[in-house]
Amino acid sequence: MNSDTFQAQPDQAITEALRLLGKRRLSLAIHDSCFPRDSAEDIGRGSPYSNGARAFFAFARSLGFDGIQLGPQGQTGRENPSPYDATLFSRNSLNLDLGALADTVSSDDDSPGLLDRSLLDQLVAGCPDQSHFRTQHTYAYDACSIALDDIYRHFCNARELGDPAVAGLAAGLVAFSAREQDWLEADALYHALATEYNGLHHRDWPETDEGCPDRELYQHAPERDAYCASRRARLQEHFTQATERYRLGQFLLQRQHMALRGYLQQLGLLVYGDLQVGISSCDDWSRSSCYLQGYYMGAPPSRTNPAGQPWGYGVLDPEQYLDASGRPGPAMRLLLTRVGRLVQEFDGLRIDHPHGLVCPWVYASDDPDPYHAVQNGARLFSSPNLADKPGLARYAIARPDQLNTEVPRHADNWVRSLDDAQLDRYAVLMDAIVNGVLSHGGAHEDILCEVLSTLPYPLARAIARHGLGRFRVTQKADLDNPADVYRSENAAPADWIMVGNHDTPSIWRLARRWVNEGNAPQQAAYLAGKLRPGTDRDDFAQEIAGNRCKLVHAKVADIFASPAEQVMVFFSDLLGIEDDYNQPGVPGPDNWTLRVPPDYAARYTQSLQQGQVLNLPCVLVLALQARGAAFCQAHQALLQRLRELAGWWVVDRPL
C-alpha cells in the first residue's frame, strides 16, 4: 500500500471540532514493532521507516491525528522484545527498511541496492506467521542479522572496488562514527563480544587468563585502567569487521529516521520520542559506573500492581549528578546526552516513569526474592531513618519531621512538606531535562510526563514548577470516588488524557467485560451524566449500557469533553482490537507482539459504520453535544457535517 492511498489531511470539520473542544494535540501511540509492512518486505516485525508505516501515518493523519507517540527505539535482545529494556543510544536494527535497501541504486544516494533482493524474498517467505498479526521477534531478529551481513558484504565489496554509488555512504559512515563515538564504540564492541560469547548476558561471560574479565572492561578498579584500555583496543582491532558492520547498521538507521522526520513534517504530524527509565544489558556493561551500586529501581505496590514490579533497572548515582563545583557529573552528563539526542531527533519526548528521576523506589539488588525486595523497598531520597534501610540515610533529602509515618513508605503523602532548597535537590534531574528541551528550541508542552496512579509529593512539586501535566487513564477510574485521579473531570489543561495505553487492556475487551459482568450500567450512568446531563440522560445511559460499541464511543467521548488539552489514543483502541499489547509484569510469548493488521485500512472502512472501530466523528459529536443545547444550536452545521462523516449512531441532542 502506498502512502498516497489516503487523503493526507483530515476533513475540516474534524479540525474545527478539536479546536472548539480545546484540544491542542491528538496523538496516536504506537511502538515500532507494531507497524504494518508491505508484504514484500515483512520479516515478521514492523518498522516506522517502512513503506507500510508511511501509509499508516497518512491514514492516521487523514483521521485527524496530528502527533505520533513512539516507544523507545533501542536495540532489543534476541529473547526479550520489550522496548523498555533496550539500549539507550543504539537504534534497533530490526527497524531497518530492508525493502529500500534492496532496491536498485538511485541517483539520490539513499543507500539502496545493498541487499540482495532474492535473499530478502527468502527471509520474507520464511517468516513462520504469514498473517503478520503478531510480531515474530526471534525470527525477525535472526533474519535481520542475516540481512545486515549481506548489506555489509555488498558495502565492503563496492567500497573496495571504488564504486561511486557508495562513496557518499562510506564518507558519511566515517563522519557518523566519529561524531557518535562516545556511545557507538562501546555499543559496537558489546554486541561483538555478546556474539562471541553465544548471546550470554555479560554477567555470565567467562573469566580471562589476563586478570580483568571482559564483563568488567568498563567497570573495574582504578589499578586495572591500563590493562582494560589495552584490552579494549585489542578487541576493537580483533573485531574490526563486526564493529564496522554494527556502525553501518546504526548509520543506515539514522538516515532512515531523518528521512521519516521529513515525511512526517510534510504530513503535519509531530513525533514524540520516549525517554525510558530502564537500561539494557549493553548499557549496564559500559555505563554502570554512573549507577548506584547495591540497589535496583522498581515500582512499589500500587492499586494497579499490588505486588509491585521488580524491574531490575539501574538507578543513577546521586553523588554523580554534580561535581564539587556544581557542574554536571557523569550521571548528569549521561542524562543530558540522551535528552539532547531525543530533542534533535524528535519533536518532543515522553518521560517514562518520572518517579525514577525525582523520587525513585529502590530495593536491594542482592535479595534472592525480587518481589520480597521490591515490596520492602523505599524512596531513595525520602528515607532518612529507616531501620531496615540504614544505607539510604546518606541520600536523604526529606527530614524525619517531614515524613508521615502513619502511611506506607510508597504512599503519595509519605513526604508532607519540602522547603525550596530541598525541592531543588529532588528536582535536579527533572530541571535538567526541561532546560535541555528549552535550550534546543523546545517548549514545556513538548514534554510528556507519564505519571499514572501515584504522584508522590516531591514529584508533584517537581513537575508543577514547570507547569507540566500528567497522564489520566480513564479506564482505571474509580467511579465511586469523585476525587479519583483517573476521572476525566479531575484532569487539568496541561494533562494528557487517554482511555488506555500500552500497559492496559484494550478498551474494546474491557467494555465487553463490563457488559458481560454487569458493570456496564455503572459506567453508562457516569458517562451519561457527563455527556447528556439533560432530560434524556437516563435514556442515553440505558442505550449505551446495552451496546458494547456505543459504550466504547461514549468512554472515548468523555476524554474529548474533559479539561485536558492533549488526547492520546493507543493504536489497538483506534482499530477495535481486543488483544493486549503488554501485560505488565506477566512474561509470556504474546507480550509486546501485537501489530496493526496488514489489511487495517479495509477493516477500518468496513467496520466504521458499525461502530466496531473508533469512529472519531461520532466521538466528537458526543463530546460537542455535552456542551449543551445552546452550543449545539450555534454549531448545527458543524454537527451535521460530523454526523455525515460518522454515518453511525449519533442522534440529535434535544434543543
Automatic annotation (TrEMBL):
Reaction(s) catalysed (UniProt annotation): Transfers a segment of a (1->4)-alpha-D-glucan to a new position in an acceptor, which may be glucose or a (1->4)-alpha-D-glucan
Keyword Glycosyltransferase: yes
InterPro entries noted in UniProt: GH, Glyco_hydro_77
Record key words, sorted: Carbohydrate metabolism, Glycosyltransferase, Transferase
Pfam families named in the record: Glyco_hydro_77 (PF02446)
A GO MF term: 4-alpha-glucanotransferase activity
EC number of this enzyme: 2.4.1.25
GO BP terms: carbohydrate metabolic process
Coiled coil regions, renumbered to chain: none
Recorded superkingdom: Bacteria
Similarity annotation: Belongs to the disproportionating enzyme family.
Name recorded for this polypeptide: 4-alpha-glucanotransferase
Species this chain originates from: Kineobactrum sediminis
